[in-house]
Amino acid sequence: MDWKTYIDSDAGLLSGKPHVKGTRFSVEFIFNLFSKGWTREQVLENYPALSPVSLNAVFAFASEALHDESLYFLKSGAA
Known about the structure:
By secondary structure, the protein is mainly alpha-helical. It is 41% helix and 5% strand. The chain has helices at residues 27-35, 40-46, 52-67, and strands at 7-8, 19-20. The chain has a two-stranded antiparallel sheet with strand order 1-2. The N and C termini lie far apart (42 Å).
């Protein structure tokens, strides 16, 4: 999947946040929907400007963006 075909970033749109081309839907917004429990079908039904392929591109973009990130796991204290 070449996410670059579907994901763009423009300083003049959404403060430069990565978004689905041709829309004002940021990658962050779409991930927020999924974090709230939305299904793929619900996202596509409620936002017809998005396509199944553009959702795949959102995940491919995030995967690549996180690939080179370093994560530091902290031990959580007892509650």
